[in-house]
Design goal:
heterodimer; A: 647 residues; mainly alpha; Cytochrome C Oxidase, Chain A; disordered N terminus; B: 260 residues; alpha+beta; Immunoglobulin-like; five-stranded mixed β-sheet; 23% strand; elongated
């Protein structure tokens, strides 16, 4: 825990020369990591060629050991273990000056490239990584739309196409999992609860740098033969894949699961024990609840994904047969373990987005959130239900026919807490003073898209219609509406909302609006037409578009051009703002949560004096005591039909 | 969002005569838009709903349409209230004053929960009923067809006739006779799907799964597609199934080496 008592201005080295800047830093980490991976890979190659039978190819063993070595040697190079050696063996406790140095004091921008413990640095690192992953993943998306725009194999051979689809999927899934719990959870949440840093600052840095080393691992698949499995990596096709590109995928997941587990534990502990005086559970901002539920779900879900990938690696490297029916294994084992992670994961992505949408709706409607407890209860209900609905992904797998009806029941029950969320958000905007800014637009889009995503989920939850649509483009369009339409649009709401606080500059609102409209129109157009393709029976993962689906796909691809343009508008906006944007105010939007009470840029340790909280941060308008039976009764009970949302 | 159901609205003073009755207007707009939406849907549904040629498919399409008719008012509720808020409660610039601190009353919360719960229950009962109907169908002259998936083709066997598709690109089924598929895989996971019949089940290596029993009701040619990612040529794993008259079917069985 970083010092809360002193912040004396002692830097360890007053005039750092080049060597002491580079070691330790990301540069020395990469150098040592590459050297270590190469040496270990060569050694394992020698051993396995000498001692293993010829029938067993060794390139998976080489790739696996190289990935492990890359992670360890990178961490040594960046100095992740320095603290353990200096203080872990009880030579002495870290002094406040050493802690300040680790938090990046006096290191300027270079602190973003070091093993820096300051939660704000980690938050910005997560933000930059999220945006980079989004960019890489969207290149994959545009490649897919390009290939699917006309019938026939246009640009890619089947192997490349499948690798692009699979990599697009898993990169985007990882990016969406971290997109809010990373930047907002690390940068904003500690300030929101009145803490000076996270509970475990060094673990915080570790969770980020594990994510950082993970990116080259998945990108390596393009040079190692790719993988054909789709983002979910189903076995036995994952066992069967001969190239080590599949091993890249497995280690990508393993490392990511460790990173996320560390981050989740850290965020949970921070919220549990680091809240400032008066920050009771009933006064936590909605965002904090959303992030908390998300990481709690992730903490429960990710070990399953990690474990199942370890089993695939064992199958691939040590010739075990967890998933091979011919040797006593079962593909059902993979499917159930995977979806036991896979469905909560959807809410790991969406819950923080919904929470952020509520937070932002409050500020821009200038009204208290419509039913604070309702929203918390809604997110709690979604979290609990989300762990018992994985079976709806396997309705047609044949592994659980007697359980299909119970799974249908609890899947449809999720629409009740989700409906409450819509009540709360629509109610928050109702009769507010709505200030239409870029974040507000994104919040409206979250609601519109999530209604479409949720309602189309009902078709997939109900067994008779699922038999028509399962495994088709309808599913693809549905989960893009939830994960992109609600998830990513929620991320961009939070991005435009907190960017002035995180970076200290004001994004151009005109470019922001252009980004929004291009993105929303392009997105809705693209995926509405993919719904139609799905209704006509187009299977997912089609490299070759068959005749009946051509029109819908071509139109979808044309709409995707708008999304492509929007990406570059957003990039231009960010780059332009970083270079010459005007400085933002400390309280850019008139928010009442604690992060808007501290100066911009936020100083190290955040608060001069820890604040004392006395109420919910949503005290807009004057509070009139509740009165029963007031107002006209004629309009009571007309709340006819509610959003039935379901995923 | 009835004013009567919101705590904190000024007692007895809402809505004032000159202030428009926002809630009433929004609800009227919602009803109008929902009705228009349902009418438009019923007009376009023949063009975008999946074409179906079996008894099973017909009941699935019925479910599809029922869900849509329920879904339209639900979606429109959110769309209309958001659009109404955006149009009427928008302020030009940074707001100088706050909105009223409205909170939902217990009656609103309970009503909302009750209606969403009732819709949910209806969906569940409807879905269970039709699922039960599909899976419990039985008949004594069912045509059994064994389907074996492998990368990247389908093989069909007719054990009652000792016939096999032998790698033929087209297989045949008799019209108006119950059919059931027994599906398995030789290598990896595949997805066996014939959209026109509304049947779909995974082909798992080492297991045999069955589709629901169904009756093809129209002659014609339909596509068998793989709908689980199965590797390189997944998107080429198509075959055709022709529904023909009983006599044509018998002739085809004989040509495939079967005996009647």
């Amino acid at each position: 825990m970083s010092s809360t008592t002193e912040s004396t201005a002692v830097t360890v080295d007053k005039r750092p020369n080049l060597i002491s800047r580079l070691i330790p830093s990301v540069v020395s980490g990469i150098v040592l990591g590459v050297i270590g991976a190469a040496i270990v890979g060569l050694i394992v190659n020698k051993i396995t060629t000498a001692y293993s039978p010829d029938t067993v190819p060794n390139d998976n063993a080489v790739a696996a050991s190289a990935f492990i070595a890359w992670v360890f040697f990178f961490m040594i190079g960046i100095g992740a273990f320095n603290g353990v050696f200096e203080w872990g063996f009880s030579r002495h406790e870290p002094t406040p000056a050493e802690e300040m140095h680790m938090a990046g004091k006096g290191q300027g921008l270079w602190r973003y490239f070091r093993y820096t413990t300051d939660h704000k640095v980690v938050g910005v690192q997560y933000l930059a990584t999220t945006l980079a992953l989004f960019f890489v993943g969207s290149l994959g998306a545009f490649s897919i739309r390009l290939e699917q725009s006309r019938p026939g194999a246009l640009f890619f051979n089947p192997s490349t196409y499948n690798t692009i689809v699979s990599a697009h999927g898993i990169i985007m899934i990882v990016a969406t999992i971290i997109m809010i719990t990373g930047p907002v959870g690390n940068f904003v949440v500690p300030i929101m609860i009145g803490a000076r840093d996270m509970a475990f600052p060094r673990l915080n840095a570790l969770s980020y740098w594990l994510l950082f080393v993970d990116v080259p691992v998945i990108l390596s698949t393009f040079f190692l033969g790719g993988f054909q499995t789709g983002w979910f990596g189903y076995a036995p096709i994952a066992d069967q894949q001969l190239t080590p590109g599949q091993t890249s995928y497995d280690f990508f997941i393993i490392i990511f699961a460790i990173s996320t587990t560390i981050a989740a534990m850290n965020i949970m502990t921070t919220v549990l024990v680091m809240r400032t005086r008066g920050m009771t559970w009933g006064r936590l901002p909605v965002t904090v609840w959303g992030v908390l539920f998300s990481v709690a779900l992730g903490l429960m879900a990710f070990p399953f994904f990690l474990m199942v990938q370890v089993m695939v690696v064992l199958d691939r490297v040590y010739q075990t047969s967890f998933f091979l029916a011919a040797s006593g294994g079962s593909n059902f084992l993979y499917e159930h373990l995977f979806w036991f992670f896979g469905h909560p994961e959807v809410y790991v992505i969406v819950l923080p987005s919904l929470a952020v949408a509520a937070e932002i709706a409050v500020v821009f409607a200038r009204k208290p959130v419509f039913g604070y407890r309702l929203i918390i209860a809604s997110m709690l209900g979604i979290s609990i239900l989300s762990v018992i609905v994985w079976g709806h992904h396997l309705y047609t797998s044949g592994s659980q026919d007697p359980l299909n009806i119970p799974f249908m029941l609890d899947t449809e029950l999720i629409s009740i807490p989700t409906g409450i969320f819509f009540l709360a958000l629509v109610g928050t905007f109702w009769r507010g003073k709505i200030w239409v800014t870029v974040p507000t637009l994104f919040v409206f889009a979250v609601l519109v898209n999530f209604v479409i995503g949720g309602i189309t989920g009902v078709y997939l939850a109900d067994l008779p219609t699922d038999e028509l649509l399962h495994g088709g483009m309808f599913v693809t369009a549905h989960f893009h509406f939830t994960l992109v339409g609600a998830g990513v649009f929620g991320f961009f709401a939070s991005f435009y909302y907190w960017f002035p606080k995180m970076v200290g500059k004001r994004l151009n609102p005109m470019l922001g609006q252009l980004h929004f409209w291009l993105f929303e129109i392009g997105f809705v157009g693209t995926f509405l037409f993919l719904f139609i393709a799905g209704l006509q029976g187009e299977p997912r993962w089609s490299a070759n578009i068959a005749a009946p689906f051509v029109t819908a796909n071509t139109v979808a691809s044309l709409f995707a051009i708008l999304i492509a343009v929007s990406v570059f508008v957003a990039i231009y906006n960010v780059v332009y703002t970083l270079a010459r944007g005007e400085a933002a105010e400390a309280n850019e939007w008139g928010g009442k949560t604690l992060e808007w009470t501290v100066p911009t840029p936020v100083p190290l340790e955040n608060f001069e004096e820890l604040p004392v909280v006395t109420s919910l941060p949503y005290s807009y308008g004057e509070l009139v005591p509740a009165t029963e039976g007031s107002g006209p009764v004629t309009e009571g009970g007309v709340e006819g039909v509610q959003p039935q949302i379901e995923s | 969002m009835s004013d009567a159901n919101i705590e904190g609205s000024t007692p007895g003073a809402s809505p004032t005569p000159e202030e428009p009755r926002h809630l009433r207007r929004a609800i009227i707009a919602w009803i109008v838009v929902s009705v228009i939406g349902i009418v438009i849907w019923l007009l376009v549904t023949p063009y975008i709903a999946p074409a179906t040629s079996s008894n099973l498919g017909s009941s699935q399409i019925l479910t599809f349409n029922v869900l849509t008719v329920l879904a339209i008012p639900v979606a429109m509720f959110v769309f209309v209230f958001l659009a109404y808020s955006l149009i009427n409660f928008r302020v030009k610039d940074r707001p100088t004053e706050d909105g009223p601190p409205l909170q939902p009353r217990p009656s609103l919360q309970i009503g909302w929960l009750g209606i969403t719960g009732a819709l949910c229950l209806f969906l569940f009962i409807w879905g269970s009923f039709f699922y039960y109907q599909e899976t419990s169908a039985a008949s004594n002259n069912t045509l059994a067809v064994n389907v074996t998936a492998q990368q990247w083709q389908w093989t069909f066997d007719y054990p009652q006739y000792g016939a096999s598709s032998q790698g033929a690109q087209v297989i045949e089924l008799p019209v108006n006779r119950p059919v059931q598929f027994y599906v398995t895989s030789k290598d990896v996971l595949h997805g066996f799907s014939i959209l026109a019949f509304g049947v779909r089940v995974d082909a798992n290596p080492g297991y045999v799964t069955t589709t629901s029993q169904f009756i093809p009701t129209q002659t014609g040619s339909y596509a068998v597609r793989c709908v689980e990612m199965c590797g390189l040529y997944h998107s080429y794993m198509w075959e055709a199934v022709k529904v023909v008259s009983a006599t044509e079917f018998n002739a085809w069985i004989a040509s495939q080496g079967g005996h009647l």
